[in-house]
Design goal:
Order of helices and strands: HHH
Structural class: mainly alpha
Helix content: over 70%
Shape: rod-shaped
Strand content: under 5%
Largest sheet: none
């Protein structure tokens, strides 16, 4: 039988990667299986089991999985083998639940990062608007200062002009009033 990679990834390296991942997972399950039986053996017999016993159980674990998948051919299981298969099943179920929790956490993190990206973009726009408004305000202040200087110059020239007009009117009034006073 030829092993083909999933349709989503057509590269052969992905297929090899899947095989390695499964081997790693099988090794981890085997280690946890051995640890579980070490603890059970210690609780039951108050001594540590020897490695040969654990190796024998580990070999049975592989056999039990194949027997559980082919129930029609296996009608006579011993109680210990059934218990071993049940423990292995629950261990696999626990790993599956942990994997589901990790996937859920990864999806939640992905959503958080997407929300963070949107927030950063929004705040970038706000900062750009603030910067633009500050530049406009500086331009308005500069224009206002120039207008203020211009108004002050016009005011002082307007005051001079008023003084000259008032002086001219006084001279004209004096020219009209003095001859009329002297004539009388």
């Amino acid at each position: 039988m030829i092993r083909r990679p999933p349709r989503s990834t057509l590269s052969s390296s992905s297929a090899a990667s899947d095989v390695y991942k499964r081997q790693d997972m099988d090794n981890k399950i085997s280690e946890e299986f051995r640890e579980l039986h070490k603890r059970q053996y210690k609780l039951k017999y108050q001594t540590a089991p020897d490695e040969a016993y654990l190796d024998e159980l580990d070999g049975k674990r592989v056999d039990i999985f194949s027997q559980a998948m082919d129930q029609e051919n296996n009608t006579m299981q011993s109680e210990a083998d059934l218990m071993l298969a049940t423990e292995s099943y629950w261990l696999a179920r626990a790993k599956e639940e942990q994997t589901a929790e990790i996937l859920e956490a990864q999806l939640e993190l992905r959503d958080l990062w997407a929300s963070l990206g949107i927030a950063v973009d929004h705040h970038t726009q706000l900062l750009n608007n603030i910067y633009c408004n500050v530049e406009k305000a500086q331009a308005y202040v500069k224009e206002g200062n120039e207008n203020l200087v211009d108004v002050q110059q016009r005011k002082s020239s307007s005051n001079r002009c008023r003084c000259f007009v008032a002086l001219g009117l006084t001279v004209i009034a004096a020219a009209i009033i003095v001859p009329s006073v002297t004539a009388t």
